[in-house]
Every structure is written in C-alpha cells, then in structure tokens.
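**User:**
Make up any protein.

**Assistant:**
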Amino acid sequence: MKIPEANQRSVVPDGEGGWKVEKPGAQRASARTDTQAEAIDRAREILQNDGGGELKIHNRQGVIRDQDTVAPGNDPTTSEG
C-alpha cells in the first residue's frame, strides 16, 4: 500500500550546516533544526500528529540512510474507559 504524500516526511541537510524536515511537494520546509536528531524527533512528532506515515532520513550527501513507519499519535479507534 502506497503512503499518501501528505503522510511522508524527509529529514535532509539544509545546505547551511543544519537540517530540515520536508514534505513532498511542499514549497517550504516543515521545520528547520541545528541537528539531525532534532529534525528526526520533529518529523516523527509531525507524522504522529498527522495520523502516522513514512519517515525517510537522509545523510549529508542526500542519500537515504534509514526509513521508518511512524504510528499515529492519537488513534481515534482506541479509547480508554
């Protein structure tokens, strides 16, 4: 099953020494951070809030080094009590 672009994010170098979180087709970055770890955390948070999706993590050369499926943060199909 193909994940809709709305539910995809990539962590990529920003060209200025930092990192950015990108959504396919977007005109600007979803977030910018100083470290890759911060960008990964922010991308996971964005995806969780957006119902889950695919995260692609690139290295400094722009090559995908890892990818992950992020589960929804608030799943309305599960409820407590």
Residues 5-70 form one domain. The helical segments are 36-49. Strands lie at 8-13, 19-22, 31-33, 53-58, 64-70.
